[in-house]
Each structure stands twice: as C-alpha cells, then as structure tokens.
Amino acid sequence: MAGQGGLRRRSFLVGSGLGAAALLGGASPFMTMGAAWAAPAGELYQAALAKGIRYGSSAATWQVQPDPAYAALYARESGMLLTEDDLLWYRLKPTPDAPLDSTYGDQIVSFATGNAQPVLAAHLVWDEGLGEGWDPDALYNLGSQEARDLLFGTIEQEVAHYAGQVTAWVVANEVTDGRRKDANGFWTVEPWYQTIGPTYVEEAFTLAHQQDPNALLLINDFGFETGSDAAARRRSMLQAIDYLQSRNVPVHALGVQAHLNANGFARKFDTAAYRTFLSDVAARGLAIFITEMDVQDDGLQADIPSRDAAVADVYALYLSVALQEPAVKVVLNFGLSDRYTWLQEDFPRQDGAARRPLPFDENLQPKPAYTAILQAFQNAPARPPL
Questions:
Q1: Bridge partners, residue 383, by sequence
Q2: CA dist 209 to 25, 162, 169, 202, Å?
Q3: What does the DSSP 8-state code read for residue 130?
Q4: Cα atoms found within 13 Å of the Cα of residue 345, Cβ hemisphere only
C-alpha cells in the first residue's frame, strides 16, 4: 500500500446462501458487463480463463492515470481489478470530520469498467490506510457509539454509492489472528473489536449485503502459508468462518492475500496442510480468492537472473498447490509490474537492489515469474468459473 502508515501484514513480512452466495452456483457475476467491451487479451488472463479462473491485479489511480504504458499493460493483462488505494480512508475520508470523497474511487472504478474488468473493492473494515489526517490512536479513542456511527455509517454510504458498479467487496480485512484472538478466531487488538465489540464483523457483512445484495462479500487475511503462526492463523480463519456461518452472516468467499516470502519458502511451506486448509474452506461452501499475491525476494542474491529464477520457483510451487483446489476461482497479483510494488517503498532490500516481486519488470517486460504463473494456469485442473 503506497505511502500509508504501518500495515499489520508488515510484521509478518520482516455461510450464508443469501443474495450473492447464490451466484456461486448460478449466473456468473462477471457476466453482467456490457458485451460491447473487449475482454483482456493477455496470455495470463486467457490461460486462467481457460481453466475457469479469473486472473487480475490491484491498481490505483496514481499508477494508471499518469502512466499510459502501464495502463495499457494493465488493460491487456488484467481481468479483474482490486482497488489498491482509492477506497482506503486516506482517499475516502482523509480526516475524521471529512465527508466521504468518492472522487478517486469513482475514477478507478470507471477505469476498470472501461477495460471490462470486474472490481473487487477494498476494504470496508480495516484498521489501516487512514493517512496523515488521522491520529495514530484515533480509532482506539472512539466511544462505542462513535465507533459504530463512524464505521457503519461509512460502510452504508460507500456500498450504496457503488452498488451495481462493483462485483465484490473485501468486507473484513485482517480481522483474525493466530495468537491474540477470541474463541472465534477474531483479533482482539483490532480497534473496532475494542470499541464496538466482537460483533462488528458480522454487522459489517450484514450491512454491506443490505446495501448491495448482489455483491460477493469476502473476509480477507494473510499469513496462512509460512511463519511460526501459520497453522494457528489457518485454524483461526476456519473458526471465524464457522462462527459467521452459524450466525447466518452473508460471507461468500475467503480472500487469501498470499504475500509470499522467498527466504526458505520451499522448506517452510507445508503443502499438505495448506491444501487441507483450502479444502476445508471449500467444504464450508466458500469460494476462494487469492487477492494480493507477490513474492518478497528476501534471502536471495542481488543478481537479477538468479533472483528472478528463485522468485519464479516460489510462484510455481505456491500455485501448484493452491490451484489444485477447485474453489480457487480468482488469482490477483498485488500489482503487475515491479514499477509499482509496495515492497520497494515499505521494505527496501538492505543491499539496495530494487525489489522484483511481480510478473513484469520495471520496463513492463515479462520475467520468469510471468512464465511460472502462466504455466501454473496451463497445468491447473479446470473448474466451473465463478
């Protein structure tokens, strides 16, 4: 996330059948777009589509508007747009007293619509992305009713504004945890948890569904692949899904961020446990979106050929496991080109070498990572599309 204050994911890196849920077994939400628009022609998109998978990437106005070459690459290669910055509160509500400003969000949604790219809008509930107009402890200092009015009032206005324009919402982002959690897997240090209470997640989903019954609603999180608490994080997410479904909350899909770390990935990635986790999610009736995939190239030599090959190996291994699960319907990179990677700004390499986490390099040329992702789609089992 460009230019924003401490993301919680950074510490990791150093079923309701109502409404849109019916779309999972019925008419595709991606088929509501006008036939006059041409579909992306890129190889990644086409190879994924042939297997019933929607491939795409995040994007932001500050990337595509001043850079026509990147905008053209994005239009060609991406079949779905995740809003990277333009619906975060530093854009949407830059100060606590500011009215909602949909200017940037409208522009990125319009860009996606013009490219026939369905939109995954993010995020309705998150404790980050506030920007410099907010005190770091502002959310924690709210009274209970203040917090309810702020969070739910924003969700109500925002979802109503974009109803019919976006396909899916990340409703709850990074709300579970492997350690500091309650009995249902929810992260207890989350400011909305502390001000509103543990029901804030289910209330947010219900409100979003009321405002746009046709949108797919996601719970999204990180850290399921490697790390000392990966197994605990997987368990917490399953607990959270079970709780939400027991309350008839309209949660339709799990978003798996898939911020991968190349440092020892093949050794640390428990492929069997991960495959079981995805299968367990699917057994609960949820679709699975890989939402923010990239590879942090820590632990790799600076020379480009060997580093690019190692990053490609991570993509190949990860996708060979993840795509075995037929419930994985969407795969999104967190950016298409190394020209625009949050890792370069937020986690520069100690040796000063530029980060190379994405399928295209700074010059918008395909890298070994591109080939690895392409081959993973080509080798993936076919599945019914979302």
A1: none
A2: 18, 12, 10, 11
A3: -
A4: 11
- The encoded tokens of residue 27 equal 């008419």
- State the pairing for strand pair 81-83/253-256: unpaired
Q: Which CATH architecture has domain 9-379?
A: Alpha-Beta Barrel (3.20)
Measured distance CA(252)–CA(210) in Å, rounded: 14
pLDDT in tens, the chain (386 residues): 333 333 344 333 333 333 454 444 445 554 443 333 456 789 999 999 999 999 999 999 999 999 999 999 999 999 999 999 999 999 999 999 999 999 999 999 999 999 999 999 999 999 999 999 999 999 999 999 999 999 999 999 999 999 999 999 999 999 999 999 999 999 999 999 999 999 999 999 999 999 999 999 999 999 999 999 999 999 999 999 999 999 999 999 999 999 999 999 999 999 999 999 999 999 999 999 999 999 999 999 999 999 999 999 999 999 999 999 999 999 999 999 999 999 999 999 999 999 999 999 999 999 999 999 999 999 999 999 98
Look up residue 149 and give its amino acid.
D
Structure tokens belonging to residue 6: 């401490």
Distances (CA, A) of 148 to 13, 170, 201, 204: 31, 19, 12, 10
The residue extents of the domains of the chain are 9-379
Omega cis (within 30) before 161: no
> Is residue 289 within a helix (H) or strand (E), and if so which, with residue range?
strand 287-296
